TrEMBL record:
Transmembrane segments: none annotated. Pfam families: PRC (PF05239). Residues 7-76 form the PRC-barrel domain. The lineage of its organism: Bacteria, Bacillati, Actinomycetota, Actinomycetes, Kitasatosporales. InterPro entries: Bac_photo_RC_H_C, PRC-brl_dom, PRC_barrel-like_sf. Gene3D superfamilies: Photosynthetic Reaction Center, subunit H, domain 2. This is PRC-barrel domain-containing protein.
Length: 118
């Protein structure tokens, strides 16, 4: 399992898919608020003048020299709900993010977020 402290060291390194295709640069790590374990990463994609952030799950991710390999295809990641490079994921978009990857979504008992940026 990847630890939050470890993966933060890989900020700005390449994120690649299982086939070795570059998706973009790792921007931040989001943890599951119920376990405090890394759950998703934001990846900076797009043209230099039109960059945005997409989310990719970290379950099954492998860290290598200068890269983080994820279990999701680049085309699926790039079609994920996106946010601006200075934005934060709105709570109302969390469910759509999990649905995009066919992952179960479990907000807190009082409607708390499932993801928190670290």
């Amino acid at each position: 399992m990847i630890q939050s402290a470890d993966i933060r060291e890989w900020r700005t390194h390449d994120v690649i898919d299982a086939g070795g295709h570059k998706i973009g640069a790792l921007e931040a790590v989001y943890v599951d608020t119920s376990t405090d374990e890394p759950a998703m990463a934001t990846v900076q994609v797009g043209l230099p003048t039109r960059r945005h952030l997409v989310f990719v799950p970290l379950h099954g991710a492998v860290v290598g020299p200068g890269y983080v390999r994820v279990d999701y295809d680049r085309s699926l990641v790039k079609k994920c709900p996106a946010i601006g490079t200075d934005d934060v994921l709105p709570v109302e978009k969390e469910a759509a993010l999990f649905a995009h990857y066919d992952l179960p979504y479990q907000p807190g008992a009082n409607g708390e977020r499932q993801l928190a940026r670290r």
